[in-house]
UniProtKB/TrEMBL annotation, chains A, B:
<keyword id="KW-0804">Transcription</keyword>
<dbReference type="InterPro" id="IPR036271">
    <property type="entry name" value="Tet_transcr_reg_TetR-rel_C_sf"/>
</dbReference>
<feature type="domain" description="HTH tetR-type">
    <location>
        <begin position="1"/>
        <end position="61"/>
    </location>
</feature>
<keyword id="KW-0238">DNA-binding</keyword>
<dbReference type="Pfam" id="PF21993">
    <property type="entry name" value="TetR_C_13_2"/>
</dbReference>
<keyword id="KW-0805">Transcription regulation</keyword>
<protein>
    <submittedName>
        <fullName>TetR family transcriptional regulator</fullName>
    </submittedName>
</protein>
<dbReference type="Pfam" id="PF00440">
    <property type="entry name" value="TetR_N"/>
</dbReference>
<dbReference type="InterPro" id="IPR001647">
    <property type="entry name" value="HTH_TetR"/>
</dbReference>
<dbReference type="InterPro" id="IPR054156">
    <property type="entry name" value="YxaF_TetR_C"/>
</dbReference>
<dbReference type="InterPro" id="IPR009057">
    <property type="entry name" value="Homeodomain-like_sf"/>
</dbReference>
<feature type="DNA-binding region" description="H-T-H motif">
    <location>
        <begin position="24"/>
        <end position="43"/>
    </location>
</feature>
Length: 188, 188
DNA sequence: GTCTATAAGCAGATAGAC
DNA sequence: GTCTATCTGCTTATAGAC
């Protein structure tokens, strides 16, 4: 794998785990055994440019991964629950959040850097679009599919944050358990 | 008002608006016209101790405020929607988040500082307890009241984050609109 | 394209006068 | 209890050799 991709992959993981400001450039470089010269060659605008590259990479990876999950599972409900299971598994084995989430980066950077905010916005848009399309095929109207997709995203991201706060996987498990109550009874 | 309280109030606002790391000690001191000596006199452990004091203050303020809202409104649904309205109003007038939320601080600090994580955890616990108690009086079982309180918290915090990302109040409005669908049909 | 060494600036924290 | 001046360490970023 080339140096540039290596840097992006390493940085993505670290940013997701610890946030943006809590990870120093030196730490990233040490973790992937790359020097400062190489970083500023590939990313002239430094750390923030690297972050945006990470978000773009994450966008592609997440889109492919979620589309795959939605192919495997017949219903939106099952697909979403499978995604949540993956997040819980991540949290239990690694103790940190590395999957379909990057809300920490939003919280930290959205008010401070406009390009970063836009990259994050694009990412959520893509995820919600996948949910939304699937819901439409299940008989939801465009409008309620859109609302439901937004709600699922908000619930998952919020639950993730509560898991982090409580050091527990209960919030995500609870959301997963409750999802059927809203997804049922609204079809068509 | 004494210097200590002034520092806490000023810092609370700035932390909520821009996060923890994006606000420098100097910025806080300048904003409330206090010097470094005074800060380290009142908070020997510096910035992090100040943050924890902010979270404790926020805890009291939020608890009082929410309890008040719950007294004014007969049902949980109306109370929560009134809270969301307040958040939306905040977002529209000031462009930043300053109300019943501090998820940015969680995202930034929970993995890094244990005392901060605990202070945040306590805060969410209190908020959820108020929701939960109210739901029980409305006929919910202990268990489903607990789950519902958690879900409402997750939804609101997640929606808040999406509002920040999209620079729009739509996510919060959508959540507020959809809440009745889960709060109905589960009573008793 | 990658290296090392160094710069320049700012963060949080401290010491000691008043 | 509050002030000013100062310190240390760490941050990102650059310059120039290879």
């Amino acid at each position: 794998m080339d140096t540039k991709s290596l840097m992006i992959d390493t940085a993505t993981l670290l940013f997701q785990q610890k946030g943006y400001k809590n990870v120093g450039v030196n730490e990233i470089l040490k973790a992937c055994n790359v020097t400062k010269g190489a970083l500023y060659h590939h990313f002239p605008n430094g750390k923030e440019e690297l972050l945006i590259a990470c978000l773009k990479g994450l966008n592609e990876a997440i889109t492919i991964d979620i589309e795959d999950i939605f192919k495997k599972h017949p219903s939106t409900l099952e697909a979403i629950q499978s995604m949540i299971d993956k997040l819980i598994h991540n949290l239990e084995t690694e103790g940190t959040i590395t999957g379909y989430t990057f809300s920490s980066i939003v919280s930290e950077m959205a008010t401070v850097s406009e390009p970063v905010r836009q990259a994050c916005s694009l990412l959520y848009e893509n995820m919600e679009r996948i949910y939304c399309d699937k819901l439409v095929t299940e008989g939801y109207s465009q409008e309620s599919a859109f609302e439901m997709a937004l709600w699922m995203t908000a619930s998952i991201e919020g639950a993730m944050m509560l898991c982090l706060t409580q050091k527990s996987t209960t919030p995500l498990k609870t959301i997963s358990k409750l999802l059927p109550t809203i997804l049922k009874g609204r079809t068509s």
